[in-house]
Every structure is written in structure tokens, then in C-alpha cells.
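Renewal narrative, Specific Aim 1. Our central claim is that a sequence can be written position by position from structural information alone. The example that follows is taken directly from our test logs and has not been curated for this report. It begins with the C-alpha cells describing the chain, in the order in which they were read.
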């Protein structure tokens, strides 16, 4: 880096023409160290940018209430900054929308874990940071000041989860999704497919969740067919996943999934004992839903056989609770022995794990590596955890609700703790495309803290815990398997 330390903000502003003339002779990596933040910094930074150089600003020593707004100002000025905050990285940060979001997320996490009230207040005041940077007015109907921010383009693949029903034949002990007798409005969801394809992204993703999506198989067929039709018409690439408990899996469903390249995520938590203890039948399902029997393991196992026989792409999800952490490796081996060659371990969210259970889970990951590492490294077994975008608690997919509203999908990991419906971003009827609809980890975490963490300290602790579990398992995989794989694959969108 060509770092120029001898130019002050005042000097830049005092003779802009001279500065720009000098800057025109510098190389492309020139950086002008403007020193500590002052009243002149923002204006000087803009001149430095105009000259083709990077302004570097020192934000050390600022109180939290001043630091957070300063970050926004410096983002607007496209500056790089140095910070000495405990939540900030030691090296200079080039402020962009993405790096600002990352810094704010780190700061929020720090505020939540230490109780730093000033920092938290400063972050609350800039929860809608994209709106603030754009100088847009606040939406008086948006209690969280987040909606405007979700109208600006994220870098990720647009993903929309279609929550086709809130019904399910089961009541799994660890399920945090609020279940009641309500199905999606078909027209809203069909519109959701069109909206997903209307943006500029080359790749889009549809995800079918519930409740149990196969309770709405005719609707899923319509949505998938529409998606594949639009894929052909637009030339975009469409990825489709469907999560299911397997109870309604039939050769017809499996063949449809194969023929339309729908990846099926089948829930099966390990051996019969663990699965049947955790995945319980709904004792009083609505009249139109057939009551499941208690052998949920048997149902999922049969479904796996049907899917494999049809040649459908199948991926088994094992959800592990803290009290069952010690069973993860055994469950993984059991499911692999049934012929599953794509597996993912999900740690239950919305419940506290604590250090001990987290360590146990990491040890279980170690056992999986010992037993299956060669198959994983050789690509014979796909361990989807290698691609999981941890911490999953703040995964940024959006969800199309049964009532047609677009919500943050990650709220489903806590929604049982709240009366009423999820925080809505918009209604699918109110938007023409998803080009600009996406979220960031900061926004997702800000939503959870505002709705749940601020209501009960217990929820705040569970969130911090779940974030820590995600980072622990990701870190463990990087340390113990990363070398053999030449580094972990890019954590994609799970
Ligand atoms: S099958 Fe899925 S939606 Fe149904 S209760 Fe279990 S976890 Fe919840």
C-alpha cells in the first residue's frame, strides 16, 4: 500500500486543486492517512476519493455513542477506518455496505453479551442504516426501522422460503415453528415465484418449508412447475429444496422431485430410539390431517428408501438437541448405513446448549471425521455441514408466509416465544421483484434482539449461545478437517 501520512484533512480542504493534481500522479493503491476523526474529515475524505485515493481515518478513542454514527459517516465517504473497539478487527476496515453490516453485527453481539447500554442504544438508532445513509425518511409504520433496509440489493442469491402450511402431523420436541391450522394462499405463493424471477440475479432459490410441506403437494407441484417454466424462459438457474418429515412420501412424490430436480431434505434424527423420542405425533391434528403413528423413524426410513428407489436427490437432516449431543456421531453413522450419502447435522436452536453440550457436539464431529473422513474427503459422502453458513441463527433467507407477507426466515427459530405473527417486511403483492429484497446478519440479529432478546434476558442468552454453537462447530470443522480438504468450502446458503 502506498500510504501517505503527511497530508492532513485541513490541508486537503485548504487547497483541493493542489491535492487533486498531486493525487493524479499517484498509483492506484494510494491511501491518505487523514488521522483522527475531526470536523473536516468527511469533506476531506470525499476529496481524497475524488482524487482516486483511499482516505484512511482513525476512529480510535471515540465513545460508543459517537463511534457508531461516525462509522456511517465514513461509509458514506467510502473511507477505510482503524478502530480500537473490542468488537472490531485490528486491521483497517474498508467501509462498504457489507463491511459496515459486519461491523455492526459484531458490535451488536458485543453489546448483547456485555450489556454495553450506550453501544446498544447507538446501534438501535442506526438499525435502518441503509435508510439513514440514503437520507430516506423513516417509515412510521415500521416499529423496527428495518424494512427500508431490506429494499437494497444484497450480494447473495435471492432465496425465498415458501411456507406452504402451518400444519404438521408431528410435534417434534425441538420444533420452534409455530404450528396451527392454516395453509398458504395459493395465489400469493404463485406470485412469489414470479417475484423471485423478476429480479436481475442469475441464480435464484426456492425452498419449501412448513409445517409439513407435503401436506400441500398439489400446490408445491404448481409452484415447482411454474419455477421450472420461468427458468426456461429467463435462462436463470433455479435451485429448489423441500424439507419433509417423510410421512407422505410416495413413489409419485419422489418421482416428481427427481423429474423436477427438487432436492429433498428428509428429517431423520438418527436411530429409532432418538428419532422416535424427539419426533412425536400430533395428538389432536385437524380432521383433514391423518394422525401419524409413533414410529416417525420408520416413516422417514421408508421415505428414504422411496426417494432412493426413484433416484431423487436426497439429503438427510439430523436435528440434535443438547441432551442428545452425545448421539450425533452414532446417528450420523446409522443414517449413512441406510444409504444416505448427503447428510447434515442441525443443532436445535431456540434452546440453550451451554459450553458442555457444545463441546460434546464438537467431539461428536471429531468422531464423524475419524470414521467418515476418508469418504468425505474423497467426495463419496457429502457432509453438508461443511457448506453451512454459520451461525445459522442469523441466516438471511426471507420467507413467504402463509398469509402472503414476506418475513425473516430466521424468526422461525424463536417464534414460539412470541404471541402473534412474525415481523413482516412487506406483502408479496406489494413488490414486483426480489432484486432488492434481502437481509444482512446485522439486520437479522437486530430483529431478533428487538423482538425477543429485549423481552426476556433468557432469550438474549439463548441467542448468544446459539451463535456460539454455530461458530464452535464451524471452527472445529476448519481446524480438524480443513487441512484434508485444502480448506473448508465456501460457506454457502443452507
Ligand atoms: S416435522 Fe418439522 S414442522 Fe413438523 S413438528 Fe417436526 S420439526 Fe416441526
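The sequence written for that structure reads:
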Amino acid at each position: 500500500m502506498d500510504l501517505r501520512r503527511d497530508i492532513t484533512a485541513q490541508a486537503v480542504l485548504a487547497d483541493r486543486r493542489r491535492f487533486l493534481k498531486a493525487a493524479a500522479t499517484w498509483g492506484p493503491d494510494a491511501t491518505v492517512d487523514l488521522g483522527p476523526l475531526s470536523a473536516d474529515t468527511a469533506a476531506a475524505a470525499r476529496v481524497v476519493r475524488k482524487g482516486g485515493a483511499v482516505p484512511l481515518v482513525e476512529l480510535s478513542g471515540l465513545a460508543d455513542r459517537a463511534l457508531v454514527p461516525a462509522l456511517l459517516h465514513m461509509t458514506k465517504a467510502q473511507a477505510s477506518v482503524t478502530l480500537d473497539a473490542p468488537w472490531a478487527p485490528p486491521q483497517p476496515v474498508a467501509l462498504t455496505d457489507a463491511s459496515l453490516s459486519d461491523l455492526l453485527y459484531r458490535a451488536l453481539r458485543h453489546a448483547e453479551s456485555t450489556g454495553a447500554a450506550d453501544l446498544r442504544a447507538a446501534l438501535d438508532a442506526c438499525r435502518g442504516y441503509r435508510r439513514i445513509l440514503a437520507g430516506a425518511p423513516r417509515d412510521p409504520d415500521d416499529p423496527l426501522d428495518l424494512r427500508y433496509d431490506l429494499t437494497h440489493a444484497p450480494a447473495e442469491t435471492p432465496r425465498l422460503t415458501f411456507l406452504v402450511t402451518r400444519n404438521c402431523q408431528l410435534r417434534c420436541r425441538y420444533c420452534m415453528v409455530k404450528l396451527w391450522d392454516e395453509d398458504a394462499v395459493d395465489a400469493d405463493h404463485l406470485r412469489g415465484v414470479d417475484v423471485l424471477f423478476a429480479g436481475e440475479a442469475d441464480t435464484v432459490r426456492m425452498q419449501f418449508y412448513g409445517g409439513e410441506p407435503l401436506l400441500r403437494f398439489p400446490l408445491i407441484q404448481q409452484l415447482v412447475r411454474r419455477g421450472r417454466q420461468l427458468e426456461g424462459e429467463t435462462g436463470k438457474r433455479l435451485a429448489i429444496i423441500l424439507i419433509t418429515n417423510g410421512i407422505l412420501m410416495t413413489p409419485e412424490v419422489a418421482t416428481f422431485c427427481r423429474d423436477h430436480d427438487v432436492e429433498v431434505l428428509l428429517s431423520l434424527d438418527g436411530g429409532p430410539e432418538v428419532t422416535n423420542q424427539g419426533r412425536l405425533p400430533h395428538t389432536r391434528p385437524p380432521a383433514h390431517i391423518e394422525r401419524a403413528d409413533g414410529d416417525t423413524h420408520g416413516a422417514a426410513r421408508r421415505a428414504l428408501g422411496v426417494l432412493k428407489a426413484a433416484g431423487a436427490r436426497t439429503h438427510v437432516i439430523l436435528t440434535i438437541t443438547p441432551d442428545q449431543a452425545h448421539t450425533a456421531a452414532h446417528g450420523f453413522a446409522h443414517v449413512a448405513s441406510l444409504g444416505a450419502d448427503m447428510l447434515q447435522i442441525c443443532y436445535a436452536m431456540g434452546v440453550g446448549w451451554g459450553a458442555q453440550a457444545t463441546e460434546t457436539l464438537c467431539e461428536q464431529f471429531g468422531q464423524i471425521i475419524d470414521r467418515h473422513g476418508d469418504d468425505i474427503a474423497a467426495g463419496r459422502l457429502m457432509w453438508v455441514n461443511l457448506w453451512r453458513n454459520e451461525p445459522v441463527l442469523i441466516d438471511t433467507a426471507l420467507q413467504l408466509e402463509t398469509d402472503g407477507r414476506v418475513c425473516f426466515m430466521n424468526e422461525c427459530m424463536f417464534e414460539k416465544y412470541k404471541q402473534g405473527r412474525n415481523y413482516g417486511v412487506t406483502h408479496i403483492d406489494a413488490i414486483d421483484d426480489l432484486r432488492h429484497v434481502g437481509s444482512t446478519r446485522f439486520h437479522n440479529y437486530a430483529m431478533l434482539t428487538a423482538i425477543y432478546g429485549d423481552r426476556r434476558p433468557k432469550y438474549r442468552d439463548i441467542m448468544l449461545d446459539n451463535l456460539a454453537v454455530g461458530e464452535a462447530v464451524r471452527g472445529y470443522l476448519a481446524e480438524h478437517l480443513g487441512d484434508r480438504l485444502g480448506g473448508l468450502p465456501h460457506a454457502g446458503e443452507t
